[in-house]
User: What shape does this take?
Amino acid sequence: MSIGVLGELELKSHYQVVISPALQRAVGMEASLLVQGAAGLESAEALAARLPDREVADLDRLALAVHLRNAPAAPQGNEWIFLPLHPQTIRQRLFSPEEALRELAALDVEPARIVLQIAESTTLDDAELQAFVTAYRECGFRIALDDFGAGASNYDRVLALQPDIVRLAPALVRNAEQSSRAARLFPHMVSLLREAGSLALVDGIASETQARIAVDADAELLQGDWFAPQGGTLPAPDVIRTRAAQLMGTGKPSPDRTELRLRSRFMNVWNSYRDGQDLEAIVDGINDTEVTRLYVIDGQGNQIGDTALTAHALRGRGHPLSDARGACWARRQYFRNAMEQPGRVQISRPYLSLTEQRLCVTISCVVMRPGLGQVVLCMDALQG
Assistant: This one.
């Protein structure tokens, strides 16, 4: 269905569902505008690039009417409708919230259902954006920051605008699928956005693997072709429920074989050290290529003696961070966790080793050592 005409151009609406994996249903739809002209079909962005500023705002105004009238029936009746805005519409202030409210009133749509999307990469200055966001938010509209992470991501802008939703650029979840380092960073980005007070929407999900990465990062909202491609209708609720159930299943994940092997190696080291063997003698029997160093920390967090290096550690003291004798690790989480739970083996999240300048995890546990009493034994293992 299409109802809008701009000159000789026909405006058409496409929608893509936004789901909540926890609620296991659609909670919104992103609207996209396609333009049919004599030369064929093109995107609204391509058309806007050829229009004067005032007509760009007219296009956004028409898009609001077209998308609202074309919107497919929503099961709950209160799903959000995400509407992208061109930067010139914001800068020129040619489309006022009062005009938008009149359009919504004519269609009996509450402004709280409308999520206005602002591109994160927009060249607008913060004052322009803040004025726009304030005016529309006071009228009941919701605000989303779009395509976050596509360029030089600006957390200051997130803090200043306090968007209801931040839509992460599709490249972020693709990178997380392809790179173990990107996968480790992805949950932290989602967590930062949530702690800033915004819902995190992961866009561009094209596979079950990417969907699981987003769910494991605790992203609240998901969108992409794996759930449903863009179109004039929304997928049936049972289709969304089935996909969400795949992601939110409670079955135990397969154990990480590398982690199991490293834990087993650590227990052998722990037993040998508890029984009185020196660290230098213990490292001679370690053949695991990931394991680089053993060291011991006292109850106050201070390293006791030197670090015992395996054959796979960086040798020598060629840089100022390599010598850990006398170091204080009291603030390291692997030390704190070991002290708080003395009967349990701890394994840290991956981090950049201060002494090796390589990505590693630390496995730690309290041990009673003859002559020293209660200390924390630590083993570092490299990560890919």
